[in-house]
Amino acid sequence: MRIGTRRSALALAQAKLVADMLGGAELVPMLASGDADATSAEATAGSAPASVGAAPAAAVASDKSRWVAELEAALAAGEIDLAVHSAKDVPGELAPGLALLGAPARASAEDVLCGAAGLDELPAGARVGTSSIRRLAQLRAAREDLDVVAIRGNVDTRLRKLGDSGEGLDAIVLARAGLQRLGRESEAGGVLDVARFVPAPGQGTLALEGRSDDEPVREAVQAITDEDALACLLAERALARELDASCHTPLGAYAVPGGNGRLHVRAWIGLPDGSEWVGDELLGGFDDPEALGRQVAERLGAAGGAELLRRAEEMATA
Fold first, then answer.
1. CB atoms < 10 A from the CB of 310, how many?
2. What is the maximum alpha-carbon separation in the chain?
3. 279-282: which pairs have CB atoms within 8 A and are 24 or more residues apart?
4. Which of 29-38, 83-92, 190-199 has the lowest mean pLDDT?
5. Higher-scoring residue by pLDDT: 161, 39
6. Active site (annotated) includes residue 176
7. 1-30+61-104+204-225 and 111-191, same CATH topology
């Protein structure tokens, strides 16, 4: 089996993990347009972190398809048999002829603060780096005094910037799963509470994408799929799809098994400046996770989330 993956250290580690689960496979590293764009932006911007106003639009607002388009094209052309993605990077709608075939067990979904033991440990006006508009909004909702700056690059690059005194960063926020898969979890200073910092839809989960009609690959993927992880992923993706969320959207969606055949879904929407936000959570049936995700999205939209989404999109693209 040929497994397509982005070329970053984290993407390669994730693809190797899946290959090992499958009993061995050939890895086919590919350059995603998102990685090429990020490299170009880094070279243009220089090394200094940019101060963030209403939203770090130039750094974090983009079409999610740029992280998966090349892999999907290779799948459609038969050049690879399976694509391994960080699920939070996968658009709500897949390319024609392709399908989400499964997901292995989820890693930790939380965000972590690197550089400080906790958010309350940071001094007033501390500079905190992030590449996510969701994290920006949640940080400002929790601490309006923070000076949030946009930082680019992969996990290793961001950690290096944190350690560079010339960057002037007091802390950065990263996904705990990425640090775990790179063997660098010891660099996390504190885990952020998911009730307050609701993770991105699919965070910590690997999405395994293949051709809809490729039964041998589907069967192989199903053998390594964790049903809890897949149900949670489907609920979170349905929620984001129902809200028509994009990379401009400060949206968190997090589902966990609730026991006794139930699924618990939590969601959060806020403005990039953290001035307004709305959240919701619901315990529902495990048998139709997508319907539960859509239900939470409808409730959130009716509670003011739809208007916040509209305003957040305007702020992020201004």
1. 10
2. 56
3. 279/198, 280/305
4. 29-38
5. 161
6. no
7. yes
What value does the CA radius of gyration of the chain take, rounded to a whole number of Å?
A: 19
Select which of 134, 140, 176, 218 is catalytic: 134
Task: Note whether 282 and 293 are within 8 A (CB).
Answer: no
Collapsing DSSP to helix, strand or coil, 195 comes out as coil
Mean pLDDT, rounded, for 280-287 = 95
pLDDT in tens, 91-135: 999 999 999 999 999 999 999 999 999 999 999 999 999 989 999
- Per annotation, catalytic residue among 88, 161, 237, 266: 88
Asked if 106 is an active-site residue, the reply is no
| Structural domain boundaries in the chain | 1-30+61-104+204-225, 111-191, 226-318
Q: What is the per-residue pLDDT for 31?
A: 84
User: Would you tell me how many other CB atoms lie within 10 Å of the CB of residue 311?
Assistant: 13
Active site residue 114: no
**Contact, 28 vs 2, CB < 8 A?**
yes
> What distance in Å separates the CA atoms of residue 256 and residue 276, rounded to the nearest whole number?
26
Which CATH architecture group holds 111-191? 3-Layer(aba) Sandwich (3.40)
Between CA 280 and CA 278 the distance in angstroms is 7
The one catalytic residue among 66, 106, 140, 152: 152
Residue range 226-318 forms a domain whose CATH class is alpha beta
Q: Is 181 known to be catalytic?
A: no
In terms of phi and psi (left: phi > 0; alpha: psi -120 to 50; beta: otherwise), the region of 78 is: left
The pLDDT tens digits for 182-200 are: 999 999 999 999 999 999 9
